[in-house]
Automatic annotation (TrEMBL):
Entry superkingdom: Bacteria
Family note: Belongs to the glycosyl hydrolase 1 family.
Gene3D superfamilies registered for this protein in UniProt: Glycosidases
Organism of origin: Agreia bicolorata
Database matches in Pfam families: Glyco_hydro_1 (PF00232)
InterPro entries referenced in this protein's UniProt entry, alphabetically: GH, Glyco_hydro_1
Keywords linked to the UniProt accession: Glycosidase, Hydrolase
Protein name per Swiss-Prot or TrEMBL: Beta-glucosidase
Length: 406
């Protein structure tokens, strides 16, 4: 048996279905021109035990999933005992299946009431989050790894879509103008500072509450974009890397671990982040195929956090070709093994994602180790699940264990 965690990740809104009281559900109904609907998603709200069994049977020993604030507190101040009990059953089911539960408290979605009341920038936001975290501690007491907030940097970036939604509501949205400069402009931006600062505050508040009442390790997961500088633009590179990810990594220096999430890499030029160039090798969601991103991101996380233990909480590829998923992941793991051989303390690897889930407005970008028929909800494990299980059975990733698992 190995202590190294080998598993896969999901988030509640992306797999559960009918997350009716969340901000995302509301915006999917209001802006069908921007978002495909999550609907029943994969019905994992009811089928989580089946999902977990597939992972455990394949040879994995960990599962990352989240608890959904919009279900636990559908109305401000009203805590649903039944929903807390539901998530406790999930934790118990994971433990019984032999999977170490890694639980995320907040993964992009918030209750619709929280959003309507001003979201993360409202003066009461931190207190509201604090009450939810306090309510959740009773089911998290023995969870070994707790992630307070998923990708605060990407969550802050998501808020940049708000003006577009407001313009659609007022009828002032110019679809052609937006389409012309939208992707270029979005690709070059950095997370808005005000929200980023709020999320850092929220994380510190949650950590304080959790440390006082639970025994598990507490951290958060930060998106690492594996930035690289173009020649002569090292200052701009350092500046962008700081606001995009390092300030969030610095905020975890006091944490028990850092959740590292990496998919791709981007260059930084004199203007800023260089958008991904169109290339047939790009993934289904348009990102450059860069399995080396994981090595770059984990080294940067170790460097900026002062070497706190790292847990890879997400890494994967949107592709319809499962052989390509295996090739990408195998290469990413080889880069991880190299970083570990250099002395970086890595406690586990959780692949994104367990299932072909709702990719925030899009059902086409399939990241899963398991395909799902969205009419019958039948699960169909892909060869990549069996492959990852074989890698897992060989313990910590090394070039030898990766070669042997093929
Ligand atoms: C998020 C996931 C998302 C994945 C792929 C991360 O940004 O945490 O929710 O599905 O990357 O885009």
């Amino acid at each position: 048996m190995t202590d190294f965690l080998w598993g896969a990740s999901t988030s509640p809104h992306q797999v559960e279905g009918n997350n009716l009281n969340s901000d995302w559900w509301a915006q999917e109904q209001a802006f069908p021109q921007l978002f495909e609907r999550s609907g029943d998603a994969l019905d994992s709200y009811h089928r989580y035990a089946e999902d977990m069994k597939l992972l455990a049977d394949a040879g994995l020993n960990a599962y990352r999933f989240g608890i959904e604030w919009a279900r636990i507190e559908p109305v401000e101040g009203h805590i649903s005992r039944a929903e807390l009990a539901h998530y406790r059953r999930m934790i118990d089911a994971a433990l019984e299946a032999g999977l170490t539960p890694v639980v995320t408290i907040q993964h992009f979605t918030v209750p619709a009431w929280f959003k309507r009341a001003g979201g993360w920038l409202a003066p009461e936001a931190i207190d509201r989050f604090r009450s939810f975290v306090a309510a959740s501690t009773e089911i998290l007491a023995d969870v070994p790894y707790i992630i307070t907030i998923n990708e605060p940097n990407v969550l802050a970036l998501m808020s940049l879509r708000e003006p577009m939604m407001r313009a659609i509501e007022d009828g002032t949205f110019d679809q052609n103008a937006a389409a012309a400069d939208h992707s270029e402009a979005l690709a070059r931006v950095v997370p808005p500072l005000a929200i980023g600062d709020r999320l850092i505050e929220a994380h510190a508040a949650a950590r304080e509450i959790l440390r006082a009442s639970v025994s598990g390790k507490v951290g958060w997961s930060v998106a690492g974009q594996a930035f690289q500088s173009t020649p002569g633009n090292e200052d701009r590179f350092a500046e962008i890397k700081y606001v995009w990810e390092d300030k969030f990594l610095e905020a975890s220096r006091e944490d028990d671990f850092i959740g590292v999430q990496a998919y791709t890499s981007q260059l930084i030029d004199a203007v800023g982040i260089v958008p991904h160039v169109e290339d047939p090798a790009n993934t289904l969601n348009g990102w450059a195929y860069r399995p080396d991103a994981l090595g770059i991101a984990v080294r940067n996380a170790a460097d900026v956090t002062g070497g706190i233990p790292a847990l890879i909480t997400e890494n994967g590829i949107a592709t319809a070709d499962d052989e390509r998923r295996i090739a990408y992941t195998s290469e990413a793991l080889a880069h991880l093994a190299e970083a570990m051989a250099e002395g970086i303390d890595v406690r586990g690897y959780l692949h994104w994602s367990a299932l072909d889930n709702y990719e925030w407005g899009d059902w086409e970008s399939t990241f899963g180790l398991i395909a799902v028929d969205r009419t019958t909800f039948a699960r169909h494990p892909k060869p990549s699940l069996g492959w990852l299980g074989r890698v897992a059975r060989r313990g910590v990733p090394t070039s030898e264990s990766l070669a042997a698992a093929r």
